[in-house]
Amino acid sequence: MDLRELRYFIAVYELGSISAAARRCYVAQPSISAAIQHLESHLDTLLFSRHSKGVYPSDSAQRLYPLAKKLTSEAQAISQLFRNKPQPMPFSLGLMRSLGAERMSFLLKELIQSVESLELSLVNPEEPCDARIITPAYLREDERFQPIWLDRYLLALPAGHSLSLQEQVSLEELDNLPFIHRSPCDALESLQQELRHRKISFLTRANIRTIEYALGLVSAGVGAALAPDWPETRERKDIVLRPLVDVKLELEIGLAYPKKRAMEGPLACLQGLCLRRWEEAGTQERAGG
């Protein structure tokens, strides 16, 4: 038994789901499952029972939970008690739009927890900064690129829309479809190029800049939109996501950093965190396939 296993257990207990716990801890689901199995073996008891929507805690889990919370909190307090108070370590990170609030929050939280006295500033990617999270299209010649996520884009439709009854949507069915245009969006630009080639055009009903507003307008029935296949997007009940036929809309998101900058301090930590997420995403995809 170790503190990491107890933290994974706490996440599963509080969220009632292995997949949700994996997203909170930002690890692959097998890592959560393995930690729970090891705890159950070590304690010789069943902690969770599965059901269609997640897991139920057992009586043993209910007894373990307050003890696990107390132990992990005390361990954190001990670490903080004996830490010196070094000078703040400034680090500026440029963030492009539409990165996904949930996953970015977990990444930034882990960075802040991993680098003592980090003073993090978030800026636009065009501003001077130590590193940027962008797509390869905006990579400069003097930068290296570490992939983090591969976003797949789907068609978001209002719940109850006639096209939502289909398993997938053809490009021809986008002709004259009311649409929420979001810019900048590389995936949308790729789709529009293909539509122009086929002489297809949708009807733009709104021009906005954020995914959140786009999905809000989709939910209100204003039109359809392109949306990334993020867990928080899939969990929405007010919209329906459908793949488009004959076009593959994917967008690689990664960390860009100067080639000549030494790989140390917050940059080295952030690069390592990004690499781990990229490798875990590949592991999950292979397991799913």
From TrEMBL:
InterPro entries: LysR_HTH_N (IPR000847), LysR_subst-bd (IPR005119), WH-like_DNA-bd_sf (IPR036388), WH_DNA-bd_sf (IPR036390). GO terms for cellular component: protein-DNA complex. The keyword Transcription regulation applies. One of its GO terms (molecular function) is DNA binding. Keywords: Activator, DNA-binding, Transcription, Transcription regulation. The keyword Transcription regulation applies. It comes from the Bacteria. Residues 1-58 form the HTH lysR-type domain. It holds the Pfam family LysR_substrate. Belongs to the LysR transcriptional regulatory family. This is Transcriptional regulator.
